[in-house]
Design a protein that fits this description.
The chain has about 650 residues and is of the alpha+beta class. The protein contains 28 helices and ten strands. A five-stranded antiparallel β-sheet has the order 3-2-4-1-5, with helices on one face. A five-stranded antiparallel β-sheet has the order 8-7-9-6-10.
């Protein structure tokens, strides 16, 4: 005998026990283990017929997916478009204006916002930097210790601090470690990204995806309650341990060496072939004109990098300097431009050996010359530079840094970079002085990949900051207050305690994620209320219904992980939780198990650099090819699918 147990009351249980004790015994054991208010459904559920409302919602989803994948506009702009479409088409989507903007007031959105603030407070104290320093001291010259310390620090840190800032802080530490020990950074950066992803599953606050998933399942249509702080920590530890062993024992045989150990930056970016020197003759008509005006007057594509005047040298801010006789300019130009220089009146090409770091890294002097250093600067995937060009942002004037080359994965661009739209993960080779590098190091739009600058951390505030985060986590874990309330209180305490200045409060917030969450939440409601999720789940069950439920659980994990490679992790969790839940109901399985499979799969897009922000952040600095991620990540993806599926079965049952 079977029952529809989707909403069971105490009286229902008494009646059911009298008729079929075995069913209720099974129900009680599942409920006790999972802590659910919404137990199993043990009878088939009809699949709804395709309706006009479903077609409208499916159309919105398809358009959103295409825009998410191709990104002609930023993800947050697409999310705003989803809100507008859902509300305008309310007769079919059922989403009222109030529901359309409900994502902005969602506990998930506000909690994620506050967690960004808490993460920024931890960053300002230099906690992760301190761990990195200890890591470097521990690792020494041992390759295994290097890798182990990177995996350990990034994995454990990401359980309590958002993994994106963890990776941003760790990149210069890892590159500095690689340089000092003669290791290729390509051997270390993919493990850094992967470990931070897996570490994010240790707690509810490890990633924004976990918090969003908790908000979704708290609705009455699903589990009826949010996840607790350490609800899936046992499985998170198992996943992190499995991934760490893989990264330590198997990945080294698969990781490439795209960048030679300790290779000079000018060689790594192939700069010397595009830089040459020109001199200003005594009788040159360009004497007295500014550098900018002089180079615009000649019909050759030139960009001044450095001005040499006797013993003095000047770097980024030379456009308005007036040329004098015998001045020497180091200029960037294409190979064709070098030939054209011979015909330029007023400048004399000075053939010489290839220009190297010694020519570009200048020591300051008392006559106005400033010290110039070379550094790699990564375009942050969530920053304002994405989609812009060096010209549209006035990069040189704005940041006081000259861009010498641009690397996008394995490809290096040395000319006509000013009009090339920037992408997240692009690595710029810049020449800048100490002050400019210091400003870049504090700018959330970029990541300085070398530790040339030491940001001023509030180390004395570190114990207090850790205490605040511990209070936020502890009070939420003990159910004294919801995580929403403790996170808001913690963010306020960061400012009150002086860990964050009031003007810094929102500096660490990834606003694109906040808007994305707000736009996706009503889309999830529309999938649920129109029956679109149930329609998809019904057809999925029809396709795999003959398989054992554990295999279906594993297939759901793999399918969700592959979908996340195309979409953002937050978009995937919104789309797949309703489907996974309904699949479980139709199979008579535990919906909790299927929801967990979706949540964990959304945090493991390991196959491409664009699947997750941290992958994109290491793509340029590692000089990786697109397929490097698949080669290292595919075996790990399969391994995690098995471990996560079996872990869910053992810990919670299906």
């Amino acid at each position: 005998m079977t029952f529809d147990l989707r909403a069971v009351t105490a009286l229902d249980l008494q009646i059911a026990t009298a008729v079929d004790p075995q069913t209720v015994m099974h129900l009680d054991s599942q409920t006790a283990v999972a802590g659910l208010t919404r137990p199993l459904a043990a009878q088939p559920v009809d699949t709804p017929s395709l309706s006009p409302a479903m077609l409208v919602v499916f159309a919105i989803v398809v358009v959103a997916v295409v825009l998410f994948v191709t990104q002609p506009v930023p993800l947050d702009v697409t999310a705003l478009g989803v809100i507008v479409a859902l509300v305008v088409l309310e007769p079919w989507t059922t989403i009222s204006p109030e529901e359309g903007i409900s994502g902005f007031a969602s506990p998930a959105t506000i909690t994620v916002l506050m967690m960004f603030v808490l993460s920024e407070g931890i960053r300002r104290t230099g906690a992760v930097q301190l761990l990195g320093e200890r890591m470097a001291a521990f690792a020494g010259d041992s390759d295994r210790r290097q890798l182990g310390s990177i995996v350990g620090v990034s994995g454990l840190s990401a359980g309590f601090v958002n993994n994106t800032p963890v990776v941003a802080i760790m990149i210069p530490v890892v590159i500095d470690l690689a340089e000092r020990t003669g290791t290729s950074p390509s051997r270390l950066l993919i493990p850094l990204s992967y470990a931070s992803m897996l570490g994010g599953m240790l707690t509810l606050i490890g990633t924004s995806t976990n918090i969003l998933a908790s908000s979704i399942v708290a609705r009455d249509a699903y589990l009826g309650r949010p996840f607790s702080m350490f609800e899936f920590t046992a499985l998170g530890v198992l996943v992190l341990a499995t991934g760490s062993l893989y990264l330590l024992l198997v990945a080294p045989a698969l990781l490439p060496e795209r960048i030679e150990p300790s290779e000079a930056l000018t060689d790594e970016f192939d700069v010397s072939g595009y830089l040459t020197e020109v001199t200003v003759p005594t009788d040159s008509p360009l004497v007295g004109t500014t550098v900018h005006a002089a180079l615009e007057a000649v019909d050759v594509d030139l960009e001044a990098v450095t001005l040499l005047r006797g013993e003095d040298a000047f770097g980024a801010s030379i456009d308005e300097k007036e040329l004098r006789p015998a001045d020497v300019l180091i200029v960037r130009t294409g190979r064709e431009g070098v030939i054209d220089l011979a015909a330029v009146e007023g400048l004399s090409h000075r053939p010489r050996r290839g220009i190297d770091e010694a020519d570009l890294e200048i020591t300051g002097d008392e006559n106005g010359g400033t010290e110039q250093r070379l550094a790699e600067v990564i375009v942050a995937p969530d920053g304002d530079l994405v989609g812009e060009t060096l010209e549209s942002t006035s990069f040189r004037q704005r940041y006081g840094a000259t861009v010498l080359a641009l690397r996008r994965g394995p490809d290096v661009f040395n000319t006509r970079m000013d009009l090339r739209p920037l992408r997240g993960g692009d690595t710029l080779l810049v020449q800048a002085d100490h002050d400019a590098l210091d400003r870049l190091g504090r700018n959330r739009n970029v990541i300085v990949a070398q530790e040339f600058t030491r940001p001023t951390y509030r180390r004395e505030k570190l114990p207090l900051a850790l205490g605040i985060v511990a209070g936020v986590v502890g009070l939420a874990a003990l159910d004294v207050q919801p995580i929403l309330v403790t996170a808001i209180a913690g963010a306020g305490a960061m400012v009150t305690a002086g860990i964050l200045e009031p003007r810094e409060l929102w500096d660490g917030v990834d606003w694109s994620v906040i808007v994305l969450l707000a736009g996706l939440i009503p889309l999830g409601i529309a999938l649920e209320e129109t029956g679109a999720a149930a329609f998809l789940a019904g057809h999925a069950v029809a396709a795999v219904g003959d398989l054992h439920v554990v295999f279906v659980l594993g297939l759901l994990y793999l399918g969700t992980a592959l979908l996340t490679e195309l979409l953002s992790n937050n978009a995937s969790v919104v789309l797949m939780i309703p489907i996974g839940f309904d699949v479980a109901i139709r199979l008579g399985a535990d919906p909790y198990a299927f929801v967990l499979a979706v949540v964990f799969a959304c945090s493991t897009p390991l196959l491409s650099p664009v699947g997750y922000q941290t992958n994109l952040m290491v793509y340029g600095p590692g000089g990786y090819e697109f397929t490097d991620f698949a080669r290292v990540g595919a075996p790990l993806q399969v391994l995690l699918a098995v471990v996560t599926t079996l872990g869910i079965v053992v810990l919670w049952g299906v």
